[in-house]
Structures are given as structure tokens and as C-alpha cells.
């Protein structure tokens, strides 16, 4: 980490902390906890997977509407971190609250999960926008990938602890029920997330901003309206957002619903947790590798690679039958999920006007979140119609193909060397 500035490291450490939420709540323990609660209540596997998909669609729709509005307001001096902090506290509090919801109340679990997800994904809007404040355009690919790499590494620690507690409780080695072991995992997630966010609050500041104006809310809506009217002036940015809309939809859907999908295939909870742990370990070096290769082959070409890997994943998922097949699928995902997200963030960061980074990252969010409505709905509806979760995953191929075609029309961003001296401060 010696090659990174204090601001870059502090920013990346937030990924180290918040990624515990991503794997334990979004991907691993909570989906299993929820599926067990729904099954106990008599909900069929396909329906419970569908309800999870509908829930993801609802909270992403809410955040997609709020993102550009809040982002535009947050561009004023001193407001970016305040908005970040507000969503951060909602996310961590709701994550901890999951531990106190009765295990047989699957509907309340989904409600609490909605608030946790709103907080986590909302905070990420402003966290992503901070990339223009902590580093230079030339270093964005490396720093963004470094953040994702740290996230994968850091998330494995609370994940291991949580798995150990759950497995030991199942075997009766520790006097804790499996249900309470999962609840402990939720508390561990919240604590881990909070502790490693401290450097972000202490050392990362809003470097680029718009000076405060009278009636800032009214002025923000005017700026947002003007940006929408003049969006065609940002052709490269607009094309990238459209491409991003499609391919990140598939990425997010696979990440958020992979555990529920594995459960429908008959994999045991322990097998799923082990596979997810190994996926995190493998994903860390590949995320950093994507960043380094992007400096040699360009970020756009590495995004091509990531999208093609995901197309293979969707096709392979259709033929999934055994645990070995699921292992192969998970490792394929591990090679690209961090890299494609990291390079998308840095690619967009190079395109946006820095003083309006929150506003434009709000659009980045709205395209990503509205996309995340389509994917889960596509999987949910296809799974219910066919009674086969594999068909739902296979249907995501079309999203990746459309994203790939549109991305091919996006020009490479021009890197401005004039700001490179910031990194040396």
C-alpha cells in the first residue's frame, strides 16, 4: 500500500469495510436466512426467489429516483460527505436490525433488508463520486481496482468468522442455534463496516465542488434540469451510461441472486458459503489485475473481456447440474466481477466534470439502479413462468450482448495530465 496516498488508502479502506455487507447480506448469509424463513412459512422456492427479486427491484427503483437529485445537491461545498454519512448510518443501523427480526417473519426481513440496501447502495453513490477527489485521472483505474481488491480481501475476514460460527452452531460445538448464529453474522457485518469507515470520514475531503448559493435546493433542480436538457453535449458519457445500463444489470443480478439460485439447484448452505468464500479470495487479485492490465490494453478493452466472461457464465448456467458445475461458474464470475465494476467506475470518473461529480454519479447510479430493476424482474418472471431458475439466468445474456455492442461505440476518455501532481501531495 506504500504506492498509494493517505487519501487513496482511506478511500479504498471503505471498500474493505462495506464489502462485508455485500457478501454477508447481499450474497451469502441473509439470502440463506431469508430462504429458510420463507420455506418455513410455506413459500415455494421459486416464489421466495421471485419475492427477493421483486424486493431488489423496489429498493433500486427508490434509489434510482433519489440518486441524481441528491447528487446534484451534494455538489455544493461540504455536502458530499454529509449525504454519504446519512446513507451510511441508515445502512449500518438497518443491517444490525436484521439480527432482531423474528426468523419466521420473512416479510419483515425483506422490509429491513430494503432499508439496509438503500443505505448501502446510497452511500456508494457518494463514495464512488469521491474518486475524483482522492486521485488523478491517470491513476483512477489502479485506485478503483485497488478499492475493489481490498473489498474482496477485507470481506473474507468477517465472512470466515460468520461461517465458522454458523458451522460450529450446526454441529453443536458452540451453544448457539443456527438462527442466532446468522444473527451474530449480521451484527459482525455492521461493526466491521463501521470500524473501517473511520479513515474515510477522517481523511477524505471534497476537493471539487460548487460554491454555495441561495436556495440551494431550487438551484440544484435547475442545474439538474439543465444537465438533462444538454445531456447530448456529453455524447461519450451518455453512450457509456446506456452501455453500462445493460451490462451492469446482468452483473448485479448474478451477484444479488446467486445464493438463492444455488439453493434452488439443491446446494447445501454450507457448500454455498464455502464457494462464496473462495470466490471472494479469487476475485481480489483479479480485480487488481484488471486495473494493471487496463494501463496496458486500455480500460475499454478490459471491459470487453469482463462482459464476454459474463456471457459465458450465463450460457454455462443453463447447463448447471452438479456442485462441480457451480464451482466452475463461481470461479468464472470471480475472475471478472470486481474488474468490470472497478473499471466502469474509473472509466466514468474520467468522463465527468469534476465539480459536478455527484450529479453525474447520480446519473451513473440511476442507470445502474434502473438496470438492476430489469435484471431481477427478468429472472423472477422467467423463473416463475418456466419453473426453472436456470432459464432466468440464461435470459441475462441479451443484456450483456446489448451492453457490449453499445460500449464499442464509446470513445476512450482523454486523460488530463495537468492534475497528476495531486497524487504527490
Radius of gyration: 21 Å
What's the architecture in CATH terms?
Up-down Bundle
Dominant shape? globular
Distance between the termini: 16 Å
* The top level CATH class name: Mainly Alpha
How many beta-strand segments?
0
Identify the CATH homologous superfamily: MFS general substrate transporter like domains
In quaternary terms, these chains amount to single chain
Q: Helix/strand-derived class?
A: mainly alpha
Considering DSSP H and I runs of 4 or more, what fraction of the residues is helical?
A: over 70%
Mean pLDDT: 83
Q: With helices defined by DSSP (H or I, 4 residues minimum), what is the helix count?
A: 17
Quick one: biggest sheet?
none
The portion of residues forming beta strands comes to under 5%
Topology order in helix (H) and strand (E) letters: HHHHHHHHHHHHHHHHH
**CATH topology descriptor:** Growth Hormone, Chain: A
Instruction: Give the number of domains.
Output: 1
Q: Which consecutive residue ranges, at least 5 long each, have pLDDT under 50?
A: 418-425
